[in-house]
């Protein structure tokens, strides 16, 4: 498929990215990645468990090759993620005696010091190479009356972990765009909770530059109208918006499982990509990048989540061939 158009040459309104875990930078995958995408997000390599597995012992062995590839191909890099409740080693939340932290002033100080040390090291290692950071990931829980997820970060420090994370990230990476990233922001209650938090923190002077919408969607959900409402909600409050982890599952519920992707689902998926990208390109005000959560269907988190089954949520199939989904983005007249 050497002759097909490059996604990034067709979609010029914003950088188009892909999440990568390692295999994507080798041989044919690497050629496909560099041809079609202008941004990459390490899918796991910059998370806490990968970069600081033991206290104050930093390693960039997973991330460095991915970022070197991006630099060699003049691609932007989205750093993902500095503070999250998942993929964070247990030691982070253990007190001086090795016991699980309870909410005391002493533990709060220790946890914030660990957070600051982590961000200072990781963000400084990459400097301006990483143009955007998902500083905080998935901090909203709309089922709580205040909308805030009861992670260990929150129960031990309140909102101070967010204040510390953004302040330190700004200090160490002064040119980077600093994002707060979350999923299901196309759901009104969720985006309202995120909106309220962002407005509150920005009002205090916390340096949040950007709201990231993950966009893990499926062939039936959400509507374009809800997706547009998601973007409109954050207009005019002084943030950029980015689509950070888009994929379009062929499944509409956890009970389904297909041995191979059915043709009608792949067609429906192509129309979702078509309509979503049409919205993104029309809605240009403050939408500054769109990233897909993977390069091709041979490496997707959806093959194991929510159950083990073969999904096919991306633009290229398991043999790296362009799918109808690709044509949905590049030239909808060729879908099918
Ligand atoms: O590293 C171990 C490896 O040593 C072991 O052999 C293997 C066996 O299962 O597991 C490996 O760890 C896996 C890791 O990915 C690296 O491949 C974990 O089990 C697995 O749970 C982990 O999944 C990642 C998931 O985040 C975990 O939270 C996915 O790859 C990654 O795509 C996904 O990404 C998240 C975003 O960060 C945030 N938004 C949602 C998105 C999808 O869940």
Draw up the topology in text:
Elements: H1 7-10, E1 16-20, H2 27-36, E2 39-42, H3 48-51, H4 63-72, E3 76-83, H5 105-126, E4 132-137, H6 152-157, H7 160-172, E5 177-182, H8 188-203, E6 210-213, E7 216-218, H9 224-233, E8 240-249, H10 263-282, E9 287-292, H11 324-330
Parallel strand pairs: 1-2, 1-9, 2-3, 3-4, 4-5, 5-6, 6-8, 7-8, 8-9
Bound molecules: ligand G3I.
Q: Which key features would you list for this structure?
A:
9 strands; 336 residues; 11 helices; alpha/beta; binds ligand G3I; 8-stranded parallel β-barrel
Description:
This protein is α/β, with parallel strands linked by helices and 336 residues long. Helix content is 36%, strand content 15%. It has eleven helices and nine strands. An eight-stranded parallel β-barrel has the order 1-2-3-4-5-6-8-9, surrounded by four helices. α2 (27-36) links the parallel β1 and β2 (39-42). The longest helix is centred in the middle third of the chain and has 22 residues, at 105-126. The radius of gyration is 20 Å and the shape is globular. The structure holds ligand G3I. The site of ligand G3I has 8 residues, from loops. Belongs to the glycosyl hydrolase 10 (cellulase F) family. Residues 1-332 form the GH10 domain.
Write a compact overview of the structure shown.
Helices cover 36% and strands 15% of the residues. The chain has helices spanning 7-10, 27-36, 48-51, 63-72, 105-126, 152-157, 160-172, 188-203, 224-233, 263-282, 324-330; strands at residues 16-20, 39-42, 76-83, 132-137, 177-182, 210-213, 216-218, 240-249, 287-292.
């Amino acid at each position: 498929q050497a002759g097909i158009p490059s996604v990034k040459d067709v979609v010029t309104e914003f950088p188009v990215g892909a999440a990568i875990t390692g295999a994507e930078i080798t041989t044919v995958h690497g050629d496909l990645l560099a041809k079609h995408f202008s941004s990459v997000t390490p899918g796991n390599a910059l998370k806490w468990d990968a970069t600081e597995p033991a206290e104050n012992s930093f390693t960039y062995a997973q991330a460095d090759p991915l970022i070197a590839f991006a630099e060699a191909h003049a691609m932007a890099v989205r750093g993902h993620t500095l503070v999250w409740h998942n993929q964070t080693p247990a030691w982070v939340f253990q007190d001086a005696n090795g016991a699980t932290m309870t909410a005391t002033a002493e533990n709060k100080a220790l946890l914030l010091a660990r957070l600051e040390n982590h961000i200072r090291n990781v963000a400084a290692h990459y400097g301006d190479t990483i143009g955007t950071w998902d500083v905080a990931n998935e901090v909203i829980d709309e089922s709580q009356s205040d909308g805030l997820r009861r992670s260990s970060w929150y129960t031990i420090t309140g909102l101070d972990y967010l204040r510390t994370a953004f302040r330190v990230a700004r200090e160490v990476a002064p040119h980077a765009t600093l994002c707060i990233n979350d999923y299901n922001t196309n759901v009104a209650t969720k985006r309202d909770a995120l909106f309220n938090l962002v407005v509150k923190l920005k009002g205090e002077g916390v340096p949040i530059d950007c709201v990231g919408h993950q966009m893990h969607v499926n062939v039936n959900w959400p509507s374009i109208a809800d997706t547009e409402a998601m973007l409109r909600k954050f207009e005019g409050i002084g943030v950029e918006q980015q689509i950070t982890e888009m994929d379009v599952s062929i499944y509409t519920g956890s009970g389904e499982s297909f041995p191979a992707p059915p043709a009608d689902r792949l067609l429906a998926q192509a129309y979702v990509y078509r309509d979503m990208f049409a919205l993104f390109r029309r809605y240009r005000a403050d939408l500054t990048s769109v990233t897909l959560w993977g390069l091709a269907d041979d490496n997707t988190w959806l093959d194991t989540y929510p159950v083990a089954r073969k999904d096919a949520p991306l633009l290229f199939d398991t043999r790296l061939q362009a799918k109808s989904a690709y044509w949905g983005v590049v030239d909808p007249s060729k879908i099918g």
